[in-house]
Amino acid sequence: MFAYYLQLGLRSLRKNPVLTALMVMAIGFGVAASMTTYSVYRATSRDPIPQKSSVLYNTQVDAFGPENIENGEPADALTYIDVTAILRAHKAPRQAAVYPVSVSVIPDDAGRLPMREGAYANSSDMFAMFDMPFIQGHAWTRDDDEKHASVAVITKDLNDKLFNGGNSVGKQVNLDGRLFRIVGVMANWSPQPLFFDVPNTGGFDEGAAVYIPFTRAIDLQLPTNGNNNCVKEPEAGWDGYLHSECVWIALWTEMHSAAEVATYRNYLNGYAAEQQRAGRWNWAPNVKVRDVMEWLDAKKVVPKESTISLVVSLGFLVICLVNTVGLLLAKFMRRAPEIGVRRALGASRSDIYAQFLIEAGAVGIAGGVLGLVLTGLGTLGTTLVFPEDIARLATLDPVLILLTLLTAIVASVVAAFYPTWRAAQVQPAWQLKSN
């Protein structure tokens, strides 16, 4: 019966091509608008590391005081004093300090120009904490951290540029005129949002090409390439900067139980209270320990534009569906004589429901195909509405293709319920009498 009803539906749609085209366009444009904006919203609000987001925690300790912060929210980063003290205490199984730096990569070939690349200075634990994927070699060790070793991890793209994609483990890379031994090559890795460096990137960035030990970067006096906030001017010189109240370093930990988190939070409160007793601070402890999704939510990483656009586009879809309801109602009620004859010949109301809902589903499929084409064009044009670093995340992948088609079919069937109900209420006797 499904094939028979589908045949009847397609025949009916061909009889009224203009009306059919209007319905397909209403569904297609409505679905395309909502799916295009949803692709951006999905990209900006997704879990960047779903396998571990619930066990990775960002650390905040208020080093500014209540008069220098808003809504009781500590600064996004930590001072060098606090980071090194917390790292020494080692109250979490894994912990990593990280801050962005900028380096010039100088090729061995004197005929090639240096390349300015983004980089991170970080603790060795970060690679395992964030499941960073290696294709050659491995991360440096905690012992390398302790020894302030001149080692580096580079990405595949940089390895391709410097070594034509060959095995570069054990070779040296020249960074700002200093040689670093390559211990590993990572696949290009840039989770979106870039959760571990939200304050400096806003959450969306192409990532770094080089990673070097945090301790070595401090020795080389490499300044942060990100935000640097100070409540007062630090003393002159690098040592004065390190011992200032300037915040510029992120601290992440990995903990797998509520007990570990509670112990760590208690330690931070005790540490902050100790700083207060020592006279460094004159305010009560104010610390925050948030997992990845809590951190992204607190920093409002999802752009307001994507949320507003999604709401507006869904409203547009609703308007399109209302128009589709009117068109279907007009179309179905014009066939009242046909319905009356079918009912008189023994067709039940459920048969009428099946026939017209299948017909609406055919409209939905056509609208979905149109919506799919328009969604593809829409994702290419998101740069007109959103910043480039966000717009590039909107892609027409298999999940979005399936969702677009499914949304179109479901929307058209839902829109057909009221017109179909009205059609099923047609009284056979009245139609036979009047015709």
Quick synopsis:
With 435 residues, this protein is of the alpha+beta class.
What share of residues are in beta strands? 5-15%
The major pleated sheet works out as: 6 strands, mixed, barrel
The percentage helix is 40-55%
End-to-end separation = 28 Å
Give the overall shape, derived from the CA principal axes. elongated
**Helix and strand string, N-terminal first?**
HHEHEEHEHEHEEHEHHEHEHHHHHHH
Please identify the oligomeric state. single chain
What is the CA-based Rg, rounded?
A: 31 Å
Number of helices in the DSSP assignment = 17
Keywords: Cell membrane, Membrane, Transmembrane, Transmembrane helix
InterPro entries: ABC3_permease_C, MacB_PCD, Macrolide_Exporter_MacB
Protein name: Peptide ABC transporter permease
Organism: Luteibacter yeojuensis
Tell me about this structure.
This protein is of the alpha+beta class and 435 residues long. Helix content is 51%, strand content 14%. A hairpin with a 2-residue loop joins strand 6 and strand 7 (178-186). Helix 2 runs antiparallel to helix 12 (304-333), helix 13 packs across helix 17 and helix 14 packs antiparallel against helix 16 (398-424). The protein is elongated, with a radius of gyration of 31 Å. The model has no long low-confidence stretch (mean pLDDT 89).
